[in-house]
Write a structure and sequence with these properties.
The chain is α/β, with parallel strands linked by helices. The chain has helices at about 5-25, 30-50, 70-80, 140-145, and strands at about 55-60, 80-90, 95-100, 105, 120, 125, 130-135, 155, 160-165, 180, 185-190.
């Protein structure tokens, strides 16, 4: 393992420990409701600016210490949005399936992310420049380049995990995010701001 990979591994270990402490100190259900409120404010503006008759988003099944996205997923589905969730493949790429309360639909293929209007993705931390550190498999770094141009990648974090310092290591294959969503709101990175927002 090279020095850069060692540095990422050590940083990821620190961020996981920090996440456990943060999650233990927060009301994850209340945070999840606030997260959903901010997400829907954002998606309402996005839907008004777009031409899609049905908004399609990505979400995911959170780990116990991750921000609770269940309210976001439930509300999106109840409002008629299409929610795609990832299926991790053996090569650590992502297939996608439509979420419904009764279960997942059939796999839609790796390119289904190209149908998405807003990609809500997990992560351990994001720095000021939009560098995201995930769990280390590189799944989203493989999948996100298949998005349509203009589809924002929005990393969902606990508030204390945004604007991590010092900055996170970024390699050529690491896909930066366009925004961070926490229980306290949305932070856009650089020039990546939705029209009207």
């Amino acid at each position: 393992m090279d020095e850069r990979a060692d540095g990422k591994r050590d940083r990821r270990r620190e961020l996981r420990a920090r996440r456990r402490e943060i999650a233990a100190a927060r009301d994850l259900v209340a945070d999840g409701e606030r997260l959903a409120d901010h997400a829907f404010e954002l998606m309402t503006r996005y839907a008004a600016a777009g031409s899609a008759s049905q908004l399609t988003i990505t979400a995911y099944e959170p780990l116990p210490v991750e921000p609770d996205v269940s309210a976001l997923v439930r509300r999106a589905y109840e409002l008629g949005m299409r929610v795609l969730v990832p299926i991790t493949l053996p090569d650590l790429d992502l297939d996608w399936a439509a979420w419904a309360p009764e279960g997942l639909g059939p796999p839609l293929g790796k390119d289904a992310i190209g149908e998405v209007d807003v990609a809500f993705i997990p992560g351990l931390s994001v720095d000021e420049a939009g560098t995201r550190m995930g769990q280390g498999g590189g799944c989203y770094d493989k999948s996100l380049p298949r998005r349509r141009a203009g589809t924002p990648a929005i990393c969902i974090l606990h508030p204390e995990e945004d604007r991590t310092r010092p900055g996170l290591p970024r390699e050529p294959h690491d896909v930066p995010v366009d925004a961070v969503l926490t229980a306290t709101g949305v932070r856009w990175v650089g020039d990546h701001v939705l029209d009207g927002g």
